[in-house]
Amino acid sequence: EKGGYPHFMLKEIFEQPRALADCLRGRLNVENSSVQLGGLTDIMDRLEGAERLIIAACGTSWHSGLVGEYLFEHLAKLPVEVEYASEFRYREPLISEDDVMLVISQSGETADTLAALRTARERGALALGICNVVGSTIARDTDAGVYTHAGPEIGVASTKAFTTQVAVLTMMAILLGQKRNTIDSAYAARLIRELNGIPEKIEKILDHSESVKNMAELFTYAPNFLYLGRTYNFPVALEGALKLKEISYIHAEGYPAAEMKHGPIALIDKMMPVVVIAATDHTNDKMISNIEEVKARGGRIIAITGEENSEVIDLAEFNCPIPETEDCLSPLLTAIPLQLLSYYIAVNRGCDVDQPRNLAKSVTVE
Ligand code: M6R
């Protein structure tokens, strides 16, 4: 059932080219530069006229929601708030009928996410969902939604659920941008074409898994890790740190790179690996200064960056080059080496990768 892989997590990491292709299939039309999301047709008018999008989720799904915030603001010029479902449900949120609530959940059974959804619905918001499990409670409780079609995810650590959620959010943001006329048509065409080619680029990254495995050997006994990213890759930094924490039990923190100066820089010394997620975008120069600051304090840089980003590649001690892509699609690629890194470190440490201690696949109680 693990298809020849030693763990479900590794199988699911390697399934991503197929999972992404299944997620995109029938939804992207490269010839006429369009996106079709059948599940949203009936509510499209209301979504188009929304004043605000509220995204609520937990854990990894909350990280994909953060990527969604950048996507919807950039492509659809829609104000977005991303909420921890567990906090949202116990606040006194100000919600109106012009708001749209979008909940994201792989399992569709997370108790806090379900409660956040119900809170927003009771106050009149349109309720949308992005779920993987077909017919799950959250999927049934929403007004409309989009399935990720990632296939069953068994490993407790979420992998293909994350990348397919980000792919759905990207399609939704492009579609909404086209409806709201906030996206330039040549740019939309380019994004659709590029998104369609993402499964192949993931395949290329997976072809180099051996080099991530070798790198993992060197860092197996590091006591702490720091992950830094900016813009679209700030949420990926959080996700990389969560992955490492939950399966290898190494303390890790993810930060927006500029926040390093406001505290975490005090932790940096030669024992501290710093994973820098530096997709080649308009923040590249800033990332380069952050790398220099880490190096000046003896920190060890592992860079996840575009293969043409020679400045970063030359500065870093270890590199995981990834194929170049559009900035806003980069999380679909940068997440992959981070999944592999945490997997191989956890295996080296003898951890139970698929069933980490104290964790359940879906958290159906508070
Ligand atoms: O099923 P959901 O997407 O609602 O689950 C949310 C979180 O419990 C989940 O993403 C958790 O953080 C994962 N173990 C992360 O790998």
Q: Which labels suit this protein?
A:
12 strands, EC 2.6.1.16, glutamine-fructose-6-phosphate transaminase (isomerizing) activity, glutamine amidotransferase, alpha/beta, binds 5-amino-5-deoxy-1-O-phosphono-D-mannitol, 366 residues, cytoplasm
Description:
The protein has 366 residues and is of the alpha/beta class. The chain contains 15 helices and twelve strands. The chain has helices at 8-14, 16-24, 44-48, 59-76, 85-88, 111-122, 137-141, 160-179, 185-196, 198-207, 209-219, 234-248, 284-296, 310-315, 331-348, and strands spanning 28-29, 34-35, 52-57, 80-84, 99-105, 126-131, 144-147, 224-229, 251-256, 273-278, 300-306, 318-322. The strands form three sheets. The protein has a five-stranded parallel β-sheet with strand order 4-3-5-6-7, sandwiched between helices. It has a five-stranded parallel β-sheet with strand order 9-8-10-11-12, with helices on both faces. α7 links the parallel β6 (126-131) and β7. The longest helix is centred in the middle third of the chain and has 20 residues, at 160-179. It is globular, with a radius of gyration of 20 Å. Bound molecules: 5-amino-5-deoxy-1-O-phosphono-D-mannitol. Residues 58-61, 105-107, 110, 113, 156-158, 242, 246, 362-363 line the site of 5-amino-5-deoxy-1-O-phosphono-D-mannitol (M6R). This is Glutamine--fructose-6-phosphate aminotransferase [isomerizing]. It is found in: Cytoplasm. It comes from Fodinibius roseus. The active site is at 361 (for fru-6p isomerization activity).
